[in-house]
Amino acid sequence: MMNCSTLEELSHHFLSQLSVLIHAQQLSGASADDSFIQLVCNLNKSLDEIYKMLKVMRHRVNEAKIQLRQNEELNNQLKTLAEQLLHALDNVPSRLPKLKPQHVVPVMPLQDSVDNRKMEPAVHSNECNYLRFLTVQEFESVPKYMKGRLTYDKVNHTVELLDQAYTEKYKILSQKKATLNDMNRKRCENYRSQEIKETKGVHFIVEKDITEFTSLKLDINARNILTILRHCGVIHEIRGGGHVRFGVV
Predict the structure, then answer these.
(1) What are the backbone dihedrals phi and psi of residue 236, each rounded to the nearest 5 degrees, phi first?
(2) How far apart are CA 72 and CA 146, in angstroms?
(3) Is 29 helix (H, G, I), strand (E, B) or coil?
(4) How many CB atoms lie within 10 A of CB 54?
(5) What is the pLDDT of residue 32?
């Protein structure tokens, strides 16, 4: 009232106070009025329902938060998997051999007769006649000191060249003696001189066969690859008589 500066403001102030007193007087007798009691009961019921709805909504919001966290974790896992798949796709080796069941074809003894039949190579893989390619798992299991900087493709390329030497040697041995030229006849004699009891039933070559029939240079890398092939059970050494033979396992 002290803040009223005009009669109009003072009149408005008194009217407001009077309105409050009138409502207070009306409410003072509400406890005796059934309509007011019913209204209050209805309001209480509505408030209870609102509280229940809020409780349910809070529960659902919490469930949604948990589901959202799970979805975020799943999304992160999918991103990691996608990155791994892309990395694998970018680093697929150029050669992934499919190994077939191995079977060994015995080496036929050398015969001078006309009935000497053509020898069939032992099939160890889907591309080589005698040897088999290393699998990725085999290559990765080779100790690092043995591999050095050699790659999976380099090792299997050497396997391919070595198999070429086996193929050429036993192609000559499978020919009839009468059809051989002087060079191949001398080669057959050398092949016979290299045979010992440990080579019976085993396909083998020596270093001279590698240099004659392939472009492979027997440098330190090639010898390391031969060591890897022995380690993985692709070939084995047969020594004796002044020769180092590489036999097919």
Answers:
(1) -145, 155
(2) 44
(3) coil
(4) 10
(5) 65
Cα 138 to Cα 37, 101, 122, 159, distances in angstroms: 89, 17, 21, 14
CA distance 223 to 113: 38
| Rounded CA separation 153/96 (Å) | 10
Burial category of 43 from C-beta neighbours within 10 Å (exposed 0-12, middle 13-18, buried 19 and up): exposed
d(CA 3, CA 133): 103
Over residues 76-101, mean pLDDT: 76
Confidence band of 29 (pLDDT split at 50, 70, 90): low
Cα distances (Å, whole numbers) of residue 232 to 114, 120, 125, 141, 142: 40, 24, 15, 9, 8
pLDDT at 121: 37
CA distances from 47 to 2, 31, 39, 41, 67 (A): 41, 20, 12, 10, 30
Contacting residues for 208 by C-beta, under 8 A, at least 6 apart: 190
Instruction: Tell me which DSSP letter residue 133 carries.
Output: P
CA distance 201 to 181: 26
Strand order in the sheet with 204-206: 204-206, 243-248, 235-240
